[in-house]
Amino acid sequence: MNAVLSIENLTVHAGPTRLVSNLSLQLGRGERLGLIGESGSGKSISALAAIGLLPAGLRAEGSVLLDGQQVIGTPDRKLNGWRGTVVATVFQEPLTALDPLMRIGRQVAEPLQRRARRDGRPLAGSALTEAVRRLLAEVSLPDPARILRAYPHELSGGQRQRVAIAMALACRPDLLIADEPTTALDVTTQAEILDLLDRLVRERNMALLFISHDLPVVANSVERVVVLRRGEAVEAGPVGAVFSNPQHEYTRGLLAAARSFDAALEGRA
Fold first, then answer.
1. N or C terminus of the chain with fewer C-beta within 10 Å?
2. Cα atoms found within 13 Å of the Cα of residue 90, Cβ hemisphere only
3. What is the mean pLDDT of residues 122-129?
């Protein structure tokens, strides 16, 4: 397998404390992998380490290859050239990821222009505006002409997340990292965003690293899972096998908690 993302023995330190310990995984083009665990298990820290965006004070060891290029120890100015072309990320809360003072059209246009310059085909003027409209339509935003003139606060949570997905797709990445992309949304909007991600990943043949603590969402979104507990991978395998016959006590506890929650919701219905 030609891995888009290859992680070997990734360890992340915060001073003397280990936040992630010896994590290894591989993800090829067109594959979907879920990284699951409770809050604080190291899911998001692992994803940030994978793209070289760890917060100040954290230190990564081991190996992280993006399309064969080493991330750990590579200067940020060089990593900036890989982000977007090789990998793009959709975060949990789009309102914090979007610039509140910039119209949506301009925010989507910026990554489109960057990718076009890298490809030697600069975009500007009406061609750029049309490219923005097409991208907003691709993520199923209604009335793209209105959306591109709007500010983030004028959109719903689901619309903002679709804009964030459009921006991630603008650079045509090989790998899409979705970090809890539906947690801040209502149930109906969650389903719409998940369907959108499923369609776009299939159509573009991207690799998908899906990070979540919501096991039913993960079960319907990925093919394989890695279960993290306190920064360590305690179980991994095909999602159906892991969820139907978990081998580790922690995984069994996560599944039992998810079933209890679903049962409680059904009882109130």
1. C
2. 32
3. 88
